[in-house]
Amino acid sequence: MSDRPTDAELAILRELWALGPSTVRAVHASLEARQGRELAYTTVLKLLQVMHDKGLVVRDASQRSHVYTPTWSEGAIQGRLLDDLVDKAFGGSAGQLVLRALSDRAADPDEIAEIRSLLDKLEQK
Hints:
The chain is 66% helix and 8% strand. The radius of gyration is 18 Å and the shape is elongated. The longest helix is centred in the middle third of the chain and has 17 residues, at 74-90. It has a 3-stranded antiparallel sheet. By secondary structure, the chain is mainly alpha-helical.
């Protein structure tokens, strides 16, 4: 991934991950519904064009309405952004990231159980 997605590009990627391959019109409608406000269609179109140029999406131009698909999975993008955050803000320490996240935000019981399960698996290695 040559360029990291901006916040606006991440919002579009989230829509594409949820919807699957989609036209600009479908992404635009979904974004408006999720954000609860009007967005300019041309803004979504331009962002998708820029994202295509950056290699974040591929475009199928075989139909009249182009269809866009994310190049990277949600997990791949999250992993890349998380790696950057851990390196920049926590000196490469994933443990410090987890400690900070858990001390600043309450985790629900299901999240705590998942964390315990992951820690148990890590200890067994």
